[in-house]
Specification:
The structure holds two protein chains of two kinds. Chain A is built from ten helices and no strands. Chain A is mainly alpha-helical. Chain A is globular, with a radius of gyration of 20 Å.
Chain lengths: 231, 241
């Protein structure tokens, strides 16, 4: 049986890569949803949020058909690397990214909505481009909410099970994450070892949520103060 | 490093054997354990990166053969196993399967669609004429080890598992009630390297080591498996004993 430390390590690796994907993508989508008016906005919102409303196993299945031998991503990677992404840790990271994206987008959108658009308009009026405005005005004002969103997405990625086990399997040392190791240990009747990893999950979750809530509280106070000062 | 997809019932013996293999040769193998039919489907339909497979039951290995994925060394029937009825520590004693009718408790077996152990268990329960009467208290699990765990965790009164599961995991949480000698297809384990896989030669090397080393053979013997490397294709139900 693989050691707890290497299982937690692989889980962290998968969740970190997933977060590295959802951070920029989630920021872009949230910015579109909050600041832009365009056709298809409603559709974008629904598509990005869909993983919240679907059984994760359906997402895993859909992803499997994309990255497996029959899907176009699978065929591209097969011709490039000689193997598909199915049943690799990259597939696990993709699954975790898709499942955590709606939480990240929602948190980012709430954080961006708390930034007064007039400040952005002023920056634009002083000659800053939209990227510079975003990086120097919007992001600094919203950073606590953004970090909170990153944390929330990270813990969701860490706890992902349903989509992961379908698209990445449960291969010790390769794709076995903390949740799938717990599942194996429960199935095998290895209760002590299952409890140990369950406890690790609880500790990681509690820490992340505590920091998340603390940041949100502070950012709410900060917005009140800056709004009050502005009036 | 080669990756071998292997039946859940082999998890202990293969993990131990891989340690011997690494100590003796310096080479390593990885495993993915699960229900043999689940694993065969992952290889055949989903493109799972298995270099070899060590599966139980003809149905699982036929799926790989039908997809033309059997490597150059062909299919080796390696091992032989038997079914055993286990019960929770306070379960009613039974001396033959039909006596399960006297109890009200739940009976765990592997899901026949995922784990061949469940298929064999269902055959045995059908042959003893009680399947229809107990079907509504049968719990189906994803593999045979999970059926055993259903008993040890107190969630089922009985389970039909392999003799090797009993031999590799002794515990006061369950008792061995009955060796089921016939009424089901004979249980064979087959080993193949996967055609076209990157590491199929390393898999064959591991397999040759398994069958040739006295130490690994001892691990399998101790677990109650019987070797039949030189055996031809199995010949239908009830051939053992």
């Amino acid at each position: 049986m693989n050691s707890d430390i290497s299982i937690v390590g692989l889980s962290l690796q998968i969740a970190l890569v997933a977060t590295a994907v959802t951070m920029p993508l989630g920021m872009f989508v949230a910015w579109l949803l909050v600041r832009k008016q365009f056709r298809g906005k409603f559709v974008l919102d629904v598509v990005v949020s869909l993983p919240l409303a679907l059984p994760p196993v359906v997402i895993g299945y859909a992803l499997l058909w994309l990255v497996g031998t029959n899907g176009w991503i699978g065929q591209v990677s097969e011709s490039l690397f000689g193997s598909t992404l199915a049943f690799t840790w990259i597939a696990a990271a993709l699954a975790a990214a898709i499942v955590s994206l709606p939480l990240v987008v929602r948190s980012f959108a709430a954080a961006l909505a708390g930034v007064d658009p007039k400040l952005e308009v002023a920056a634009r009026g002083l000659g800053a481009g939209s990227v510079r405005t975003f990086l120097t005005i919007t992001l600094p004002l919203a950073y606590k909410g953004v970090i909170a969103g990153v944390l929330l997405g990270f813990v969701r990625a860490l706890s992902e099970f349903g989509a992961t086990i379908v698209v990445a399997g449960n291969i010790p040392g390769r794709t076995q994450t903390v949740p799938s190791a717990i599942f194996t240990r429960i199935s095998a009747g290895d209760t002590d070892a299952a409890w140990r990893l369950a406890l690790v999950s609880v500790v990681l979750g509690v820490i992340a949520l505590a920091v998340h809530n603390w940041l949100l509280k502070r950012s709410a106070n900060g917005i009140e103060r800056s709004n009050g000062g502005g009036r | 490093m080669p990756l071998i997809f292997a039946a859940a019932s082999l998890s202990d013996v293969l993990t131990d054997s891989a340690q011997v293999y690494e100590r003796e040769t310096g080479k390593r193998v990885d495993f993915s354990f699960g229900g043999s039919l689940t694993l065969a489907n992952q290889i055949v339909q989903l493109g799972a990166p298995a270099d070899g497979a060590f599966l139980v039951g003809e149905r699982a290995i036929e799926r790989i053969a039908d997809a033309d994925l059997v490597g150059s060394n062909g299919i080796s029937p390696m091992l032989h196993n038997q079914l055993t009825l286990i019960g929770s520590s306070d379960a009613l004693e039974v001396s033959k399967l039909s006596e399960l009718l006297m109890s009200e408790g739940r009976i765990a077996i592997g899901n026949p669609d995922l784990a061949p152990a469940g298929e064999f268990a269902r055959q045995a329960l059908e042959s003893s004429g009680i399947w229809d009467d107990i079907a509504d208290r049968v719990i189906m699990t994803s593999d045979v080890r999970a059926a055993m765990a259903a008993v040890t965790s107190g969630n089922a009164e009985y389970a039909v598992v392999y003799a090797s599961d009993v031999a590799t995991y002794r515990s006061s949480l369950y008792k061995e009630l009955l060796t089921i000698e016939d009424g089901y297809d004979s249980i064979h384990y087959f080993f193949v390297s996967v055609k076209g896989a990157k590491n199929s030669e390393l898999v064959q090397d591991f397999f040759t080591f398994l069958a040739g080393s006295n130490e690994t053979k001892g691990i399998f013997d101790f677990a109650g498996f019987r070797w039949n490397v030189h055996l031809g294709p199995p010949s239908g139900p009830g051939t053992q004993k």
